[in-house]
Amino acid sequence: RKLGIALVGLGGYSKNQLAPALQQTQHCRLAGIVTGTPAKATEWMQKYNIPKENVYDYKNFDRIADNKDIDVIYVVLPNSMHAEYVIKAAQAGKHVICEKPMAIYPKECQAMIDACKKANKQLAIGYRLHYEPFTREVMRLGQEKVFGAVKFIESSDGFRSGDPTQWRLKKSMAGGGPLMDVGIYAIQGARYITGEEPISVSAQFAPKTDPVKFKDVEETMFWQFEFPGGAVSNSTTSYAAGVERLYASCEKGWFELSPAFGYGPLKGRTSKGPIEMPIVNHQAAHMDGVCKDLLDGKQLPDHVTGAEGLRDVTLLQAIYRAAETGRKINLKA
Ligand code: NAD
């Protein structure tokens, strides 16, 4: 059996990545859609053969509870809307996948976790790279200390953002700028290479080169983590220009991915030569991985759940606090 997924929000990521990936998945299928735009509903129903009964808008969303075709609700909305729709999805008695960042504030993440727990449903975050072979290999190289202890990490993700009117540049909807959008990948990179939680953070905002476009959010920023095992990391995130690199220098060598975080193919090498791994569709691998566990009645691995989303959102806010105050922030519990 394939689990039926309903996509909530038919923007760029749903249209260009998730729906095409759902044509390749083994354990799930595109069963329904939630959209506020009738023209999109018509287009998607035709293109993906979605029956009318499986098409919802934001007003009748709660009726999805009665739809047996839909097992999983995948929330692909602007960041500020994740919490509300994840909680509604759990209350409708469905498993939930929520895009990154899980939410803007840790408090929202906790409410999302609590709602899913109360409904006895699982919550996955759209951490597609956790199912991606090159990424899994650098997790192994770092965490198993294949090149000795990791000494320092450079982990950066940014791109040149286009349309100045998009929600990604509005603090109320995005929660911040590139840190919220792609900086989270750089945070994840440092965390999954070390397999540790950072114990401190320092951060700096770069000067804005376009203060009009970036009046509401940062344009470029930097931060540094210290890890309990002795590794330190330095990261850049930006909407001014592209960067996409994860590099670890270890006692007895180094390894890197570049590109490291995009839709692929990712590329990697180590001080001993190229990293050779199969190239997969990230979104299909992620949704299949999550849905296989759901079908088997297994707990999802912790590093793709709401608990992991909450850790990242806590760090996102700590990075902003460090940059705003100019102080190194102690993250030890
Ligand atoms: P987008 O702007 O292309 O789409 C957003 C969708 O939300 C649109 O269909 C829009 O109509 C809908 N929407 C509903 N209510 C809205 C409102 N009040 N204001 C604005 N839009 C509203 O964005 P996207 O790139 O598809 O991103 C959606 C989510 O997916 C974000 O959380 C983003 O971080 C995440 N994302 C993840 C990845 C990944 O690789 N995992 C990649 C891209 C985006």
From TrEMBL:
Top-rank lineage group of the source organism: Bacteria
Sequence ranges assigned to domain GFO/IDH/MocA-like oxidoreductase in this UniProt record: 136-255
Parent-protein residues present: 60 to 392 of 392
Keywords, alphabetical: Oxidoreductase
Record-given protein name: Oxidoreductase domain protein
UniProt GO molecular function: nucleotide binding; oxidoreductase activity
Ranges where the Gfo/Idh/MocA-like oxidoreductase N-terminal domain occurs: 4-127
